[in-house]
Amino acid sequence: MKVLVTDPIADPGLERLREAGHEVETDYDVEGEALLDAVRDANALVVRSGTDVSREVFEAAEDLVIVGRAGIGVDNIDIDAATDHGVVVANAPEGNVRAAAEHTVAMTFAAARSIPQAHGRLKDGEWAKGEFLGTELNNKTLGIVGLGRVGQEVAKRLDSLGMDLVVYDPYISEERAAQFGADLVDDLHETLARADVATVHTPLLPETEGMIGEDELAQLEGGYLINCARGGIVDEDALAAAVEDGVVAGAALDSFAEEPLPADSPLLDVEDVVVTPHLGASTEAAQENVAVDTAEAVIAAFDGEPVLTALNAPSVDETAFPRIEPYIAVAETAGKVAAQLLDGRITGVEVTYEGDIAAEDVELVTASALKGVFEPLEWQVNAVNAPRLAEERGIEVTESKTRQTEDFQSIVRVAVHNGDDELAVEGTLFAGEDPRIVRIDGFRVDAVPYGHMLVARNTDEPGVIGLIGTVLGDHDVNIAGMFNGRETQGGQALTVYNLDQPVPEAARETLLGDDRVVEVTEITLDGADERKAE
Ligand SMILES: NC(=O)C1=CN([C@@H]2O[C@H](COP(=O)(O)OP(=O)(O)OC[C@H]3O[C@@H](n4cnc5c(N)ncnc54)[C@H](O)[C@@H]3O)[C@@H](O)[C@H]2O)C=CC1
Ligand SMILES: O=C(O)C(=O)COP(=O)(O)O
Predict the structure, then answer these.
(1) CA distances in angstroms from 244 to 250, 274, 334, listed in the order given
(2) Residues 48 and 122 occupy one common structural domain
(3) What is the model's pLDDT at position 534?
(4) Are residues 135 and 252 in contact, defined by beta-carbon separation less than 8 angstroms?
(5) Are residues 205 and 80 in the same domain?
(6) What are the C-alpha distances in Å from 27 to residues 73, 206, 258, 425?
(7) If phi over 0 gives left and psi between -120 and 50 gives alpha, with beta otherwise, what is residue 442?
(8) Ligand 1 atom showing the smallest separation from residue 279 Cα
(9) What does the pLDDT read at residue 526?
(10) What pLDDT, on a 0 to 100 scale, did the predictor assign at position 265?
(11) Is any ligand 1 atom within 6 A of the Cβ of residue 280?
């Protein structure tokens, strides 16, 4: 598989990808049209914050399986477009947290003690000792906006330096804040008003964009603002003006609305604004961590394993995965068979889990059932975009579970509806590993789902099975296995054949020419060539 890397990541990540047998191409300057060209034949794209992964990228990259973000923030990736195209987006949410927290602490000191400014003066030959009277952090109040992974690490560090903590984060509990010795406040303005130093640690989202503007800076009066999260959360013009006018004492910023920061940014003209070029994650340890974690995510995606850090794919618990993994294929196959046996437009899909499997988190299994249902409709579908496709097309999806089961340890039942009728296919695992179709439309069968399958509905009378066998034989189609189920003696029967060859059109016509044969559906489980005849 080909992995295109468009922002610098640490060597151990590149090596991990190569060791796994993948071709790695690094192209760190690529953007715009050149990026669209470069990504065209890529199976994975690995980025940091420097690549704009827009909808056009997903449109150009037809073979893309995953975008790996070697870091946390994914505001440079159009996740919606990724989902539409069935591409997994995964970040590395752990590896650079401590680096970002340490940089935040460093920036807090830099601002409060004017370290860069004093350093600059001394380098210029000036001993400006009398001009810098700093602020001690001890006994001051830190306002944390966003107590997530980075915010928590910052809280621990600055708490231990003697700061009191107040937190604004509408999505956490008081208990959580209390664990960090912080007072949770439900108002941003109050948080800023109480803070001597305010530090921002939220993602950039429509909700947080411009969250700190002129009014908020006025609340922080006399304090310092630190932003090592994302540009765009803080209004840069308002901040430059607030520092310039002495409304706030100073600011330290590591991320900016536009990066690289334009040379004419007003922030650069204000003495008490300290800036670094998005260095929060730039430590050797952090870069190694996120590069390796991202490589592992890419490799997992290529291997069809769950990507635990995926942001737009069904969630999977690593420890539970071995228990649900075999049912992924069962559900997909059941969905595929059901969709091909039901006439008309599908309006609903119901996935039912019975027995042991009902105890598991089956989100990925249900998504796989939907993939199976939609694939014969020739939608470009996978487990990432199947639930969304269902929603967009008004197909109602229901999932139900019962621990009770009659005949098998676990059953996955996929029922498709067309508004009038329902058709259900049930699958299970024999000996815990062999997928079997055990019921089709109420008929008890025992079919091994692979290769070419023929599902025939016929009347239950002597000679019909012989007829089907003879017609297939006449067309050089070998029967590898067969199972016949019937309602009642002389009623309707359903027969499933495993075949070594596809069924020629002429054979199907001959079969359908016989009154006793009601319907013949050929299902090819390993890909193309599904056809239906009645
Ligand atoms: N400068 C750098 O190099 C680095 C920057 N970052 C950035 O730091 C930020 C935080 O990262 P993590 O802590 O890993 O994220 P996280 O997802 O663990 O935490 C974010 C927190 O923000 C809270 N939040 C969401 N909306 C909010 C709102 N409207 N008001 C207040 N709180 C809100 C969430 O509830 C959550 O607790 C991200 O923007 C990330 O991209 C992360 C690493 C390095
Ligand atoms: O992880 C993050 O969110 C960061 O901001 C780090 O960005 P970078 O990987 O250094 O471009």
Answers:
(1) 9, 13, 67
(2) no
(3) 36
(4) no
(5) no
(6) 21, 31, 21, 48
(7) left
(8) 3
(9) 64
(10) 98
(11) yes
Q: Is 277 within a domain? A: no
Least confident of 25-29, 272-276, 405-409, 476-480: 405-409
Ligand 2 is surrounded, with C-beta below 6 A, by: 48-50, 71-73, 96, 278, 280-282
Model confidence over 444-456: pLDDT tens digits?
999 988 889 999 9
329 in the same domain as 221: no
Q: Give phi and psi for 160, each to the nearest 5.
A: -70, -10
> pTM for the complete prediction?
0.87
Q: Residue 249 falls within a domain, yes or no? A: yes
Per the document, the length of the chain is 534
Residue 528 vs residues 127, 461, 502: alpha-carbon distances, Å? 78, 33, 11
Closest CA to 44 of 307, 284, 281: 307
> Looking at the CA of 103, which ligand is closest?
1
Q: Contact at 8 Å (CB) between 187 and 213?
A: no
Q: Return the pLDDT at 59.
A: 97
Q: 37: pLDDT confidence band, cut at 50, 70 and 90?
A: very high
Task: Assess if residue 385 is contained within a domain.
Answer: yes
Atom 9 of ligand 2, nearest CA residue: 48
Which CATH number goes with the domain that contains 239? 3.40.50.720
148 pLDDT tier (thresholds 50, 70, 90): very high
Ligand 2, atom 2, lies closest to the CA of: 72
> CA 498 to CA 333: how far, in whole Å?
14
Ligand index nearest the alpha carbon of residue 192: 1
Domain shared by 434 and 379, yes or no:
yes
Quick one: pLDDT at residue 530? Answer: 38
Q: DSSP per residue over 111-176, as a string?
A: HHTTHHHHHHHHHTT---GGG------TT-EEEEE--SHHHHHHHHHHHTTT-EEEEE-TTS-HHH
**Residues 15, 160 within the same domain:** no
- Is residue 102 situated within a structural domain? no
- Mark whether 41 and 152 lie in a shared domain: no
Segments forming the whole domain that contains residue 439: 320-525
The CATH number linked to 500 is 3.30.1330.90
C-alpha pair distances (Å), 226 with each of 111, 250, 273, 436, 452: 8, 9, 10, 59, 63
ipTM over 0.85: yes
* Atom from ligand 2 closest to the CA of residue 92: 1
> Which ligand 2 atom is the nearest neighbour of the CA of 69?
9
Closest by alpha carbon to 208, among 243, 171, 173? 171
One domain, residues 328 and 475: yes
What percent of the chain clears pLDDT 90, i.e. is strictly above it? 87
Is residue 490 very low, low, confident or very high in pLDDT (cuts 50, 70, 90)? confident
Max distance between CA atoms of the chain, in angstroms, equals 108
Is residue 486 predicted with pLDDT exceeding 90? no
For 188, the 3-state DSSP assignment is: helix
Q: Are residues 206 and 230 in the same domain?
A: yes
Is residue 405 over pLDDT 90? no
State the burial class of residue 519 (Cβ atoms within 10 Å of its Cβ: 0-12, 13-18, 19+): middle
Total domains in the chain come to 3
